[in-house]
Here is the input.
Amino acid sequence: MPKLSIDGREVSVRDGTTVIQAAEKLGIFVPRYCYHPGLSIAGNCRICLVEVEKFPKLQIACNTPVTEGMVVHTNNEKAEGGRRVVLEFLLANHPLDCPVCDQSGECDLQNFYLNFGLYDPRFREQKVKKHKAVALGPHVMLDQERCILCSRCVRFTDEITKTGEFGIFNRGDHAELGIYPGSELNNRYSANVVDICPVGALTERDFRFKARVWYLSSAPTVCNGCAQGCNMDLHYVLDRPHLNDGARVVRVKPRYNPDVNQWWLCDEGRYGFGWIDRARLVKVLSRDGEVAAAWEQALAAIAGALKGGRIGVIASAQLTNEELFLIREIFWRALGAQVSASVPVKPGSCDDFLIQADKNPNTFGATLLGLAGPDAPTAAQIVDEALAGDLDVLWVMDHDLVELFGEEKVRGLSEKVGLFVFSGTNENATVPLAHWVLPSAAYVEKDGTFVNFKGRVQRIGRAFPPLQDSREDWRILLELAGKLGLPLDWQSPEKIFLALAKAAPPFEGLSYEAIGAQGVRVAVAP
Amino acid sequence: MEPGKPESTPEPEPFICSDGPVLSTRFKDPEGTWFEDYAADGGYLAARKALTSMTPEQVIDEVSKARLRGLGGAGFPTGRKWSFIPKQTTKPKYLVVNADEGEPGTFKDRYILERDPHALLEGIVIAAYAIGSHKAYVYIRGEYFRPAKRLQRAIDEAYSRSWLGKNIQGTGFDLDVVIHRGAGAYICGEETALLTSLEGGKGFPRIKPPFPAISGLFSCPTIVNNVETLACVPYILRHGAERFAGMGPDSQGGTRLFCLSGHVARPGVYEEPVGMTLRRLIERAGGVRNGNQLKAVIPGGISAKILRADEIDVAMDFNSLMAAGSMAGSGGVIVMDETTCMVEALHSAVRFFADESCGQCSPCREGTGWVHRIMRRITEGQGRLQDLDDLLAIASGMEGKTICVFADAAAWPIQSYITKFRAEFETFIRSGRTTRSLEVASCPS
Here is the structure.
């Protein structure tokens, strides 16, 4: 455990730690372009120069191992002067087209210039011309002139995806980033290179010219695209409907979680947000000619039918633990319904990195609550019972039964059962066959928790309110409980979770606070 | 001859020294030395001595005592470098020979490869034995067709006579030597870029640590030595460290092949003791051509800081030249007489560095290109006096901030030319054209 001093503060770190990591431990940020903790060390950008006493030259913090008694200065005149010079070199041939660059506002060339650059530019020569607006693949656009050749993207495709699309071609100031001839940047994690690009060289085609980043708000959540549960930040805009065609979600960025997804996110998850603002169910619909009806009217009618009826519920592993817990308490415990969240899963593709075949984010949570797994009935059993006339009420959450079981069966059960309720977020083929359609909130419009495939419970966060008349499933269920006269006065997902934690042993002792931003392991995957 | 243009002085045939005592004794024959001639001359006796009667430690010790220093340019003590190879390792160890002689003004390794390749091979056998390597790579610059062919001829001879391959001369020591041809990048002469290139990658220097002796070629312990350095080794073992060390000052033993080019009467390769002064060396090459006045000398390849005519009473060993504010470098001595325009000379140098920067580190990539564009503007008559201070500031900004020393090497000419010949630069900028005397330049010899 060598002990060293950085900017006059002492710190002990493990052997083999580099100066940049030791500084991080003290909360001292050393500027970096090429250094990325998830990639190998390149040491080429030279912006992390620091002064190490007894070394004649400035040293790069990213590749200098700490030694006992080392004295490091990250902020003195010598270190900052060295970095300022490096920045001037980096900006010499930079096109300075910030007004039309999507990176503007989150660009480390801009940030570092304002932090410690602030020199009077001396470069008066003709800048080197390179290619601009080169589409590298479905998601990523390259601007070679903005590139500072830090090689993060090259190392990402070499070391993380091992697909090796990127290369740096030519020499000297004609060196340029590109992909190998005949290749395309279309691996399943391609857009991560945009996140790690510290400048505007690699930008998202999907986000291109949609909004200036300073208009975006950000909310932490968890991807609902599969059972991995990658942590991410949702970037949205609410008060500028002229941007992004009025859609609220503008883009998604991975959020660091060392135990789940590190710094990365797959493209499928990243671009899977379109449904949140498109083809949404936003009105309560009744079967009588699909007229919009009020929530009050709908819930009163449904509660009336539920009392004393034989009930089947096909729940969804897209729902939060809190909602599944309410379903268990209301339908299973209080009303004695058949409840299943075991729905035939369409085989999804997977890999050995972040993409899971199970495309539901909360299958493990449903299993822990007894709604899925070997002991729970399957959705097919419930559908068969409904067709056999053994059910009075069938409630389907989210699923498109038509897709799963065929239109004929669903039309049949729609006629057979007394009440067929559908609650969900988006239009599908089952909606027109339901007797009541309840519009529910998307997962980014509510609080709650998911349990990923490894048994880690993680919080999702409400970024913005539900669209129009749609409501969170937990709110729908609580109001229904009120109509049924059940004493569930929990009011919020956080309170529901506390009740859940008391009732379900794996969650014992947990609270939202204890789960925190990075989640907690509650069970071990079978 | 183009009409209207004066006929230029025909380029003199280079003079190739064959006086010895260490490196050049067999340079006489332009067809090169064959195995039998080399053996008749006492060749491979040193290798036999090392393999049969010395331990690797004794070999390293002898080379250290000879005060042999790396003659590729850095001047690192060779024996010490060899001793950095870890003793306890399960990995193979490699010897890599740097024959990527690319420093402008340097053409010595070429003559060793062409005219005395067995001296290099014998040095390789001894060095490989000393560091425990069983595979040596010789990285030869792409432009060196004939040297590569000659060395391959010698390697084939050595294999057929059991001086390479399995169980060399029945001693149980194995060694294979493989030639790798470079593709013409100057940076591949930098030892870590050379290793990357040898592995099949783009010639990018590597960050240190780790150093090649710990993790070099294919992440294995590796020693990279220059051709001339290794060619000195057989002499040391045959004649003893004292004799070699005695040829030079206390800090450096032996002789060097100095490459004299530019405005000397008799350009060529001269083997001289490292302690010889630069003035004496120029005299050895017949002095400045046409009886002209000496203006400046680059003592150790284009990267070395330039010396004025009044600074040439300096010995040519590493320490003396460093004390004089320049460096011995690769031994490439470029002589400039009074007809030389320093602005054009610097323009030529910076264009070279702008072309050859690998482009990896920002200060070097951007700095070399920036400097080149300023210098081009100046030579086109569009310079401003402020440019000179800008050039110095850019040069100091590049210096000491990069992975390898290329940026430093690119900065030194800028700094030395401008500070030592500032008046000439200012005159050029003010008048927008060169001040060199065209009459003298076109004068027939």
About this structure: The CA atoms of residues 395 and 411 of chain B lie 5 Å apart. The first strand of chain B starts at residue 15 and ends at 16.
